[in-house]
Specification:
The protein is mainly alpha-helical. It is built from 26 helices and 13 strands. It has a three-stranded antiparallel sheet with strand order 5-6-9. The chain has a two-stranded parallel sheet with strand order 1-2. The longest helix has 16 residues. The structure holds glutamic acid (GLU).
């Protein structure tokens, strides 16, 4: 029998691809609690739903957990994590175990075979709907005689196994919510073994939590309604109840529930707005799949399809999965910190902390009941703080690693020293690793392809005044052509004297037209860094082209 004083928590995801914020928060709480209590954290893959895939793509969340720095003591092998006595940790490999326990329930009369076909059940549901009644399975199969059951089994009739729900109140003790009661008669006899022989989620979770000696189940409140079923099954099987802690749901700032379906929701709305009737070819979505996706709000596009469609529609998708935040340039330790605050806070009220602090302070009694709001601005502010606090060397090395994975075009474009310079020049203003990449596109462009958009700051710096920015550029170009030592310090000296000569010492008046000429816009890293990273030849050519395009940039001047 399990030692009740040993804390064992588990995270039990279904293999449906990447880890979303809600799942990550559950995993984090389970992990932190086990660490705090000197217990063990288990990872179990709930892959008994045959309709879902459990191939490698489905296990992408293992990478996400590793990226966040969450390791597990028992579970599927991954890097250094994994192994353990209570395996296998894939439910699909535990069917024999479930069968043993099904037999126990059949023998004790707590479960019975039900032979209704899906068509018959659908029909019964329809009738209930037409009569404006809630459908509840009528226990017809419970009254079959032993002979009839044997006859059906001999005929090989497909059937499910249902749990006979006792007619009494069910009480769930929850660490966060207190006592949660369910009145008698609220539950129907639910299915515990599907017609394909696989256990349902409810059954597998109860058996596994017991055999894996899980002491604390910490999970999202969306599972609260399931817990009454789990408690009944535990009683029928003679298992002890683990402690339950149901954590509040996570909401978007607009009050809607944050969901892995948010991306599809946004895409569907835009598709409708833009009147797109057939799938854009770039997305590779088939016409019939498109029609189904448009109608059925529970269907999600694949990550790739969603990204491609967002590109066609020219919209940014909200970050929902841990992998989205990684791609958007957030630091794993910052996301981990922020996730910990979604429903929990340390006793001393601090908001910014690292994993060690969390693991030494996390406790269930500081989990709150109230809904958690996912505030992206706050997360971004945390990320900015963490980036600012980093040493320059650490920043460069982590930014380089991130670019290698997510934006290799920058690594390919710059040589080692220039990449280093590019990274350092961006550290000061950067809120996420994505910022330099987004604002630095001009570095990668062909000199002949750069354009100057007709936006106010461009016109103001280049077209207005007497002399205008373009006039100043024209006057400065010959001087810049002569600069031999194209370094930040020598350019600074050159610009100082150009400012004296052309703008009464106002450096901005000479620097801003140059910045816009070489980058196409008003924002870039510090000007001398920008010029050095770009290189002399590109800078001169871009200024020349800017002057050549004078009539287009400043029409009528
Ligand atoms: N497989 C379930 C899920 O992914 C696990 C729920 C639980 O923690 O019991 O939601």
């Amino acid at each position: 029998m399990a030692d009740p004083s040993i804390v064992r928590t588990r995270f039990a995801p279904s293999p449906t691809g990447h880890l979303h914020v809600g799942g990550a928060r559950s995993a984090l709480f389970c992990w932190a609690y086990a660490r705090r209590q000197g217990g063990r954290f288990l990872l179990r893959i709930e892959d008994t739903d045959q309709k879902r895939s459990s191939d490698a793509a489905g296990l992408a969340f293992l990478e996400d957990l590793a990226w966040l720095g969450i390791d597990w003591d028992e579970g599927p092998e991954h890097n250094t994590c994994g192994g353990g006595e209570a395996g296998p940790y894939f439910q699909s490999q535990r069917l024999d175990i479930y069968n043993e326990h099904f037999d126990r329930l059949i023998e004790s009369g707590a479960a019975y075979r039900a032979f209704e076909t899906p068509e018959e059940l659908n029909e019964a549901r329809k009738i209930a709907r037409a009569n404006k009644q809630a459908y509840r399975y009528d226990r017809a199969s419970l009254n079959l005689s032993d002979e009839t059951i044997q006859q059906y089994l001999d005929e090989g009739r497909p059937h499910v196994l249902r749990f006979k729900v006792p007619d009494r109140e069910i009480v769930v003790q929850d660490v966060v919510l207190g006592e949660v009661r369910l009145a008698p008669g609220e539950l129907e006899d639910f299915v515990i073994r599907k017609a394909d022989g696989f256990p349902t989620y409810h059954f597998a979770v109860v058996v596994d939590d017991a055999l894996m000696e899980v002491s604390h189940v910490i999970r999202g409140q969306e599972h609260l309604a399931n817990t009454s079923k789990h408690v009944l099954l535990q009683e029928a099987l003679g298992f002890r109840h683990p402690a339950y802690a149901h954590v509040s749901l996570i909401f978007n700032p607009d009050g809607s529930k944050m969901s892995k379906r948010d991306k599809d929701k946004l895409l569907r709305a835009r598709v409708k707005e833009q009147g797109l009737e057939s799938p854009p070819v770039e997305t590779g979505i088939a016409a019939d799949a498109w029609a189904i996706w448009l109608k059925d709000k529970t269907i999600q596009l694949s990550t790739e399809q969603a990204v491609l469609l967002a590109e066609v529609l020219d919209i940014e998708l909200p970050e929902i999965d841990v992998a989205d935040f990684e791609k958007a340039g957030y630091l794993p330790e910052v996301l981990l910190n922020y996730l910990a605050l979604l429903g929990w806070s340390p006793a001393d009220g601090r908001e910014q902390f690292d994993a060690d602090f969390l693991c030494s302070n996390f406790d269930l009694d500081r989990i709150v009941k109230s809904p958690a709001k996912f505030d992206r601005d706050k997360l971004l502010a945390f990320n900015l703080d963490a980036l600012q606090e980093m040493s320059e060397d650490e920043f460069v090395s982590r930014f380089r690693g991130w670019c290698e994975v997510h934006h290799p075009e920058y690594r390919r474009h710059f040589d080692e020293a220039t990449f280093d310079h590019f990274a350092r020049a961006n550290k000061e203003r950067c809120k996420s690793f994505l910022d330099p990449v987004k604002s630095g596109r001009f570095f990668l462009m062909d000199d002949e392809a750069l354009e100057w958009p007709a936006i106010k700051p461009v016109r103001k710096a280049l077209c207005n005044g007497e002399p205008s920015g373009l006039d100043r550029l024209e006057a400065m170009l010959p001087v810049l052509r002569e600069v031999e030592d194209w370094t930040a310090s020598s350019l600074e000296a050159t610009f100082d004297s150009l400012a004296q000569e052309h703008a009464e010492g106002n450096l901005g008046k000479v620097a801003q037209p140059v910045r816009i000429a070489v980058s196409g816009g008003p924002v870039s890293p510090p000007i001398f860094d920008t010029l050095v990273i770009l290189g002399k030849a590109s800078c001169i050519r871009r200024i020349e082209r800017c002057l050549e395009n004078r009539d287009v940039i400043c029409p009528g001047n």
